[in-house]
Amino acid sequence: MDRGEPFASIDATRNPMGVLGVSIGAITGDMGTFRIVVELENPAHPGPRRSVSGVLVDTGSELSWFPADLLESLHIERYERWRFRQASVVVIERWVADGIVHAAGRRAPDYVVFGERVTSCCLAPVRSRA
Predict the structure, then answer these.
(1) Is 97 within 8 Å of 76 (Cβ atoms)?
(2) Cβ atoms 123, 103 nearer than 8 A
(3) Are 6 and 26 spatial neighbours (Cβ–Cβ below 8 Å)?
(4) Residue 100: how many CB atoms within 10 A of its CB?
(5) pLDDT band at 15 (very low <50, low <70, confident <90, very high)
(6) Residue 118: how many CB atoms within 10 A of its CB?
(7) What ranges make up the beta strands (E) of 1-130?
């Protein structure tokens, strides 16, 4: 395999594999999950942050979910109730607000959903808001 070649068919399923250190551009077809540490901040009252470890990043998610008590501890104001259809087909309503998420040395505005006390933290990838 030539190290200057950005793709090499080296896996059994014939998926294109990137060679470390060689830029191949964005790969956007695959979805997946991983966990990171994030900090949350209230955009209306910048400064204080809450750190959350083990946050699931779901590349297929569009909104970030955090326990309500965590968001309330930052005085993030609920502004609208949205309906969500779960995988079980059950429809639930949750409050939504604006928040700032700090992760991997970056910060970004995000919609945050007020989850139940037992809600796992789930972060959506950063997307531009229209």
Answers:
(1) yes
(2) yes
(3) no
(4) 19
(5) very low
(6) 6
(7) 7-8, 17-18, 33-41, 49-58, 64-67, 80-85, 91-103, 106-115, 122-123
The per-residue pLDDT for 130 is 45
Start-end of CATH 2.40.70.10 domains in the chain: 31-123
Bridge-based pairing of strands 122-123 and 49-58 is parallel
* Statement: residue 3 has pLDDT above 80: no
Tens of pLDDT along 99-112? Answer: 999 998 999 999 99
Average pLDDT score over residue span 25-35: 59
In angstroms, what is the C-alpha Rg of the chain?
Answer: 18
Residue type, 126: V
- Report d(CA 16, CA 38) in Å as an integer: 31
| Two structure tokens written together for 107 | 């910060």
**Using CA atoms, how far apart are residues 27 and 54, in angstroms rounded to an integer?**
25
To which CATH superfamily is domain 31-123 assigned?
Acid Proteases (2.40.70.10)
Question: Does position 73 have pLDDT exceeding 90, yes or no?
Answer: yes
Q: Give the span between the Cα atoms of 69 and 11, in whole angstroms.
A: 45
